């Protein structure tokens, strides 16, 4: 890994520094906008990326209310979050990811993380605007495919029952087989990613296939409601695997 290569983002939120700190410094907070996290009393933790894919880590540095760094003591890879209040209200979050792999494909790895963080920080902004203060039940599903993003989108849109030409701001009804329909608004739409905000929370569907390590997944944030996590995850996982059987 290279300690010199870094991904940096600066995001403004209409939220207090205390709200932003809570969202980036605990397991329940990270689960609100990222993926399900479990964190222990000594700073050890595990993130669930779906489909049995988990990643362990720990808190490497912590300045209460201001700065926290996650990583692994045996690796230069790290995620740093710095929280700063704005004079005119709101909060700036400064984020740095370091420790990218060396090699010819490091640029592809960088791009993959960059677009992923764009979505996740958008999730946090949506949470503060529409669901602030509500607890989250977060579900993640995952599979793999050799298809590219355009072919994945064709299959995803058919499986969700939405127009392939759906755009940001459109009202949609998702009709995934085996799950209740979802009525909402498209709040995120870029190549390879569809995000829908509904009354109960946020639903994200993404896949870059051959352009992104073969992955395709969905993430569901239910705010203020508590669906059966195991049963609902299983239903979404079954739906995803019906469209994209795991391929190695």
From TrEMBL:
Transmembrane segments: none annotated. It comes from the Bacteria. Residues 14-128 form the Activator of Hsp90 ATPase homologue 1/2-like C-terminal domain. Belongs to the AHA1 family. This is Uncharacterized protein YndB with AHSA1/START domain. It comes from Amycolatopsis magusensis.
């Amino acid at each position: 890994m290279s300690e010199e290569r870094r991904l940096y983002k600066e995001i403004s939120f209409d939220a207090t520094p205390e709200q932003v700190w809570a969202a980036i410094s605990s397991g329940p907070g990270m689960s609100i906008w990222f993926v399900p996290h479990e964190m222990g009393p000594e700073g050890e933790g595990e993130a669930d990326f779906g489909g049995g894919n988990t990643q362990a880590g720990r808190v490497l540095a912590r300045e209460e209310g201001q700065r926290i760094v996650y990583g692994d003591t045996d690796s230069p890879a790290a995620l740093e979050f710095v929280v700063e209040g704005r004079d005119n209200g709101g909060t700036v979050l400064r984020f740095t990811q370091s420790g990218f792999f060396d090699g010819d494909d490091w640029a592809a790895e960088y791009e993959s993380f960059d677009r992923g963080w764009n979505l996740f920080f958008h999730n946090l902004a949506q949470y503060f605007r529409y669901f602030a203060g509500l607890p989250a039940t977060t579900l993640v599903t995952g599979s793999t495919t050799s298809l590219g993003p355009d072919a994945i989108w064709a299959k995803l849109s058919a499986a969700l029952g939405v127009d392939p030409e759906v755009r940001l701001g459109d009202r949609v009804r998702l009709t995934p087989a085996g799950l209740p329909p979802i009525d909402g608004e498209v709040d995120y739409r870029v190549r390879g990613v569809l995000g829908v905000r509904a009354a109960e929370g946020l639903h994200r569907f993404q896949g870059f296939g051959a352009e992104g390590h073969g992955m395709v997944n969905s993430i569901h944030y239910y705010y203020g409601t508590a669906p059966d996590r195991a049963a609902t995850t299983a239903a979404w996982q079954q739906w995803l695997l019906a469209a994209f059987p795991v391929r190695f």
